[in-house]
Amino acid sequence: MTPRTADRPQPQMSIEEFEELARRAPEMVRLEFINGKVQVKAVPDGNHGQIVMWLLKRCMQQRPEWSLFPEQGLAVESYRKGRARPDGVLAPEEYFVGAGEWSDPKGVLMTVQVTSKDADTTRRDRVEKPDGYAAAGIPVHLLVDRDACCLTVHAEPEGGVYRAVTTRPFGAVVELPDPVGITLETEKLKDYAE
């Protein structure tokens, strides 16, 4: 058990109750279940969506055998007791066919999170989600931080945390480690920061 998980409070509800709640939520509401708490995922603005599209194109150009799936639900955290919707999930083409709303993260190569303009961004996007993705064994997590104008690459998941974390400013050339192996020239991201 990692120090971050040792003092977690009891979950607000069971996974089954959360999944039922998420199924019944209105279409414009996206729910996640992180660290035992129901969270509402912010509706993305235009710049957020443009960053995801920019990254999707880079992935397609360099690794056409893979797809960057927007908003794919994943069963994450220890023993899959969490449910998250990364802004992007890099996996082999057609990987999620028949998988359902909350897919097993085994085989996922990378998750992508673009920070939102809301009060929970630091806790949710910079701490809780990377921990959940690391606990699920996802090899690479990319955080595109619009507030700090930087990209943070998390790699080498072990014991529920990423052992290698590298941050580079927008404009730098960023190498996404294996198994992703994609190079990002990030100058254009300066246009999408706010």
Describe this protein with a few key phrases.
194 residues, alpha+beta, tt1808, chain A, six-stranded mixed beta sheet, three-stranded mixed beta sheet, 34% strand, disordered N terminus
Shape: globular
The number of distinct helices, counting runs of at least 4 residues, comes to: 4
Kindly report the name of the CATH homologous superfamily: tt1808, chain A
CATH top level is Alpha Beta
CATH architecture: Alpha-Beta Complex
On the 0 to 100 scale, the average pLDDT is: 83
Instruction: Tell me the quaternary state.
Output: single chain
CATH topological fold name: tt1808, chain A
The percent range for strand residues is 25-35%
How does the helix and strand content classify structurally? alpha+beta
* Unreliable stretches covering 5 or more consecutive residues: 1-6
How many angstroms separate the termini? 38 Å
Overall tally of domains: 1
Total beta-strand segments: 13
- What is the H/E string? HHEEHEEEEEEHEEEEE
The strands making up the biggest β-sheet line up spatially as: 3-6-8-9-10-11
* Cα Rg: 16 Å
Helix content bin: 10-25%
List the helices and strands and how they pair.
Blueprint: H1 3-6, H2 15-24, E1 30-34, E2 37-41, H3 46-62, E3 66-69, E4 73-76, E5 82-84, E6 88-92, E7 102-103, E8 110-114, H4 121-135, E9 140-145, E10 150-158, E11 161-169, E12 173-176, E13 182-185
Parallel strand pairs: 4-7, 8-9
Antiparallel strand pairs: 1-2, 3-6, 4-5, 6-8, 9-10, 10-11, 12-13
